[in-house]
Amino acid sequence: MRRLIPPLAALLLLTAGCAPPRTGTLGPAPAGPSPTTTAAAPDGTPPPIPPATGVPGTPATTGTATTPAATGADGTLTVQLWFARGGRLVPTRRTLPATVATSRLALTELAAGPSPAESATGLTTLVPPGTQVTRIAGGVATLVPPAGFDADGATDARLRRAQVVWTLTQFPTVRRVAFAPTDAATGRDDYADLLPPIVVTAPAIGDRVASPVTVSGTADVFEATVSVRVLDAAGREIGTGFTTASCGSGCRGAYRLDVRYRRAAAGRGTVEVYEVSARDGSRVNVVRVPVELTAAR
User: Fold this and answer.
1) DSSP string, 174-233
2) 103 Cβ partners below 8 Å, 6+ apart?
3) Full pLDDT tens readout for the chain, 297 residues
4) pTM of the predicted model, to two decimals?
5) Is 236 inside any structural domain?
6) Which of the listed residues 135, 165, 194 is the one where a domain comes to its end?
7) Is residue 127 a contact partner of residue 179, using CB atoms and an 8 Å limit?
C-alpha cells in the first residue's frame, strides 16, 4: 500500500484545480448566501454583473461586458468602460443620460478618461478624442482612428486598441472591431492577455455598498482561489471571505461571492480582492476598490 501513496497524491494535486467551487468566510464577518458561480467565456469575458447599489444618484445595474448596457427607468444608461493600469485592462462603469448612439457615448467617455477617484487608483486612458465608429455591420464595428492613434510605440498602441475593443464589444451588435483602412477585425480574445490575474467587475470604484457586498469578476489564479477583504477607512479588516473561480491555474474563470462586514457607521472603505501566494502565504495580485460603506451590524 505504501507504494500507492505517491500516485494518489499526484492525482489529487492534478484534480485540485477542477474541484467544485467552494466559498467560505474568515475573520469577524459571518457567512453570506452561497454564491452562484457562472462560467466565463473562453476569451475571459466576465460573468453577468450582479445587482449592486451604485453611487448616490446612480441606479443599480445588471449590465455585463457582453450584454446591452443597462437602461434605467429614470432615462439613464450604464455602460462599462475599460481603462488601463500598469499595462493591463481594468473595467469601471458610468451612468449617463440614455442615448441611441451608445457606441459614440462609450468612446467619448473612454477618451474623457477616468474620474478623479478612478485616477487616484492608477487608472488612465490611452484613447484620444475623436475616436468614433463609422459603421456597424455583421457584428463588426468599423472606425477610422484619428491622427496619431498608433503613436507611442507598439505596446501602447495595442493597449489603446484593446480599450476600444473591450468597451465596444459590451454591446450586442458588436462582436469585433476593425480599425480602418486596412486592419482586420479583432475581438476580445485577441487581447485577453492584457487582463490582470484578477479582474473585479463589481463593485466599481465609488459604489455605495451594503452588507453583504457582492464581489464578482474573473480570475486566473493558483487553484482558482480568490480571497476578499473589506476594510474600513483606517485599513482595519471588518469582513473577509473566499471562493473559487470556475477555472484557475492556467485558465480564466468567473467568480462571485457575498461578503458580510460589520461597521457601526457609514463611511469610506475598500474592497480588496487578492490571491494568496502558494510560496509564502502573502497577498499577491491585489486589486483595491474604494467604496462607500453603509452601516452594518
Assistant:
1) -SEEEETTTPPPB-GGGGGGGS-SEEEEESPTT-EE-SSEEEEEEE--GGGEEEEEEEET
2) 133, 136, 141, 168, 171, 174
3) 444 444 444 444 444 444 555 554 443 333 333 333 333 443 444 444 333 333 222 222 222 333 346 666 678 899 999 999 999 999 999 999 988 889 999 999 999 999 999 999 999 999 999 999 999 999 999 998 898 898 889 999 999 999 999 999 999 999 999 998 877 899 999 999 999 999 999 999 999 999 999 999 999 999 999 999 999 999 999 999 999 999 988 899 999 999 999 999 999 999 999 999 999 999 999 999 999 999 998
4) 0.77
5) yes
6) 194
7) no
Is 51 a member of any domain?
no
Number of domains present in the structure of the chain: 2
Q: Establish if 70 belongs to a structural domain.
A: no
Domain boundary among 154, 173, 194: 194
Q: Is 100 in the same domain as 186?
A: yes
CATH number, domain at 259?
2.60.40.2550
The C-alpha cell 490582470 sits at 196
Residue 218, exposed/middle/buried by CB under 10 A (0-12, 13-18, 19+)?
buried
**CA 149 → CA 2, 130, 168, 169, distances in Å?**
64, 10, 17, 19
